[in-house]
Amino acid sequence: MSEFPEYLDVDYEAGSDEDPADYAAIEDKIEKAIEVTREGLEQYENPVVMWTGGKDSTLTLYFIKEVAEKFDLEVPPAVFIDHFQHFDDLHDFVDKWAEEWDLDVIYARNEDVGDYVDEHGLTPGDDIEISELSEHNQHHIRDLLEYEEDTFPFLLDTYVGNHLLKTVALNDALEEHDVDGVISGVRWDEQEARADETFYSPRHDPDIYPPHDRIQPILQFDEPAVWDAFWHFVVPDTVEEFPDDGYVPEADDDLPGDLTKDDIPVSPKYFAGFRSLGSEVSTDKAAEEPAWLQDMANTTERAGRAQDKEDLMERLRDLGYM
């Protein structure tokens, strides 16, 4: 593989044939995350961090902030993909913590689809006429997705909807901002299509996406370790009134002192029982108790997500999906 760009010196095989069990202790997982994050911030000239407001991307953002402060590096802009079907309180969460952490947020949107939806007063599930979209979007639908129908439903968790609302929006933002590295919070254990990822993952085919690399510092975390990191590291380091040695709440009103869930950098959807955050119309809570108290060993993290998209994950990732 030719070097991309020439100024980079990263090991694209780092993490091959590994899994979370190779990083047994939480300290091992954190040490690796810091190592990958530091290399990403030092090696790439125009990196960004993907931030959904979910636990994985917020944990990744925490490592970036910590590493940037410790090694006198810049915190890169955060890219938030606005696919028009977010929970309202997720928007509120991102807005609050972006201001709290003084983040530069790039809102990636497929404005062409959004304008069509607004103009026709569509709601999720309504059909979108492909012939009325831009040539750019029609190229993706016809030439890359090889989709032959005249319409597609305005739904995020479908083949066409996910690609246009998330991947095209992301790729357009990467091109506009000349991004060479995308720091992402994907994990090996989260989804089968991500199980073979490496810490530095090339995306160099210009016919599919603006050439860039994915930097993936938390591949080695599993779901329980993510929550362990939150309640013993992220929250204590972020919230002054939180116990330094951590605390695991059993409900949204079980927080130390006068703190409320709005004071905590954990999306309220997790307090409400969601395990994974997708679109408002196609994601259900997994149980009534908070996500970190659920049976993570015997249940599937993404079971609440629309499964047609989950079944297409490998193909979607080939086209640039996270």
Instruction: Please report the number of helical segments.
Output: 10
The assigned CATH architecture is 3-Layer(aba) Sandwich
Global mean pLDDT? 92
Query: What are the secondary-structure elements, in order, as H or E?
Result: HEHEHEHEHEHEEEHHHH
Structural class: alpha/beta
CATH superfamily: HUPs
Major β-sheet strand ordering: 3-2-1-6-8-7
Quote the CATH topology. Answer: Rossmann fold
What does this structure look like?
The protein is of the alpha/beta class and 322 residues long. It has a single domain (1-322), classed as 3-Layer(aba) Sandwich (Rossmann fold), CATH 3.40.50.620. The protein has helices at 26-43, 55-71, 88-100, 111-120, 135-144, 159-176, 223-238, 268-271, 307-311, 313-318; strands at residues 47-50, 78-81, 105-108, 127-129, 151-153, 181-183, 200-203, 212-215. It has a six-stranded mixed beta sheet with strand order 3-2-1-6-8-7. Helix 2 (55-71) links the parallel strand 1 (47-50) and strand 2 (78-81). The protein is globular, with a radius of gyration of 19 Å. The two termini are 22 Å apart.
